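Quick entry between incubations.
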Amino acid sequence: MEKILSELNSAVGVKGSAVVTRDGILVRSALDPSLKEEVVSALSSFLIATTSRALKECGIESFQRFIITSTHGKVILVNLEDAYLVVVADQFINIDLTLVEIMSVARKLKKIIKIEV
Amino acid sequence: MNILQRFKISRELARLEKKAREAPSPSTYVDMAQVYINLGMVDQTLRVAEEGLALFPNSEELKRVLKFGKKSKLNHRIRDLRSRINKSPAPILYRELASIYMELGDFGSVQGTCEECLRRFPEDDGTWLVLARARLKNFYRDLTAQDGLEAVRCLKKALALNPASGAALRLLSEVFYRVGAIGQAQEYLEKLRGMFPGEKEVEALWQEVSTKTSREDDLEVLFRAVEEKGALAYGPPGSGHKAYSLAPEQALMGIKKSLAQIASLEGVQKAAYIKGSKALVRGEIRDARDPFLRAARVISRSAQRASRRMDIGNFNKGIVEGPFGHFLICCLGDVTSSVLVDKGSRVDRVLSLMQDMVASSLYVANSEGGR
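Done. Structure below.
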């Protein structure tokens, strides 16, 4: 899993990636030293929980992907069913191109997670 | 380093310096700074980064180099201060050390240094002030109630030790004003006015505070409300911050028109323009309590909070995707626009219209505020 994440990190502009569970437990990570593991996992879990709860109130069961664009970076959350893939990137990435890579990694991770479970 | 290596480096530096003069580019300056970094020449690194930024102020790489240079310089100072503290500890040294950590954004070390100082010098009001400043910095950045309340506690402690501390009175008055504790802000401002009669800044804040009224006096409630809303009750003193209103009548027409245009696009189910507690809606939205509006507020607030904590700036845009379609959020300042669209719709087109609507409404609001 670490190898897959590291490969994803070699994409232009990707600062780090991690797999976290819904309740914030870090499964695996490959993050840039500027990103703290516990901060990324805690904030991802916070985002997943608040977004899922808010959507549920609207009658929406779950989400597959959440792309956050901020002034200095981007965060992409992808639902892997048993966990979430979190990717932190800088603001200059070509999101369309990187998303193709992220989704391919997400598919690989989904299989691994299922086997490990 | 042997003579040959030194020669190679100085030749490389001379080449880069020449290149920077003849054909300046951000990469030339970055390369030059990199050589100085490798040589451990912090002052030269800073000089090159500053020169580069003077010519290319938007270069992210040069900004990073400058930050790194500053950090290295401060690290030298940290080592120096640490050794001086070990030899003969003094509150002033601790305070300087804590301030450097604060500049580096290392809050854990600020707290550790201040606690160490207070164990040795419990009566030092200046250290409580440094601790309060660090907490306030976090509070104004993340709007977390715990930081705000802790800052108030530290400031009160500093004031108890030194009732004539103008800095503590100033910071307390300002934070009370900004969270909406007007009565308490007035109380501290009165003391400040007594200490510095006629001072412009104090008088300006006094004028501003005098026009406001408190809706709540419980500090805990006020700080929690700030955290909940993701916004302070009032802007910085002198900013002319006004109470929330959706927009002036003329601008409202423009927003309504933009919203109608978004709602008319194929696949758009719901569309909303939200400012504070007010909202304009189009599409299948029942009333102001529609869960869609709540979801838009909650998601944008949590994305804003996560962005700030992850140090990636302010949240601008969010796309939540799933079998239901796309939940789009566009956020600028205190304005949020949210749209729910079906799967397969032209998300880019909708997002660009949302951005235009939010940006133009801010422009109108700002120009009105400036009049």
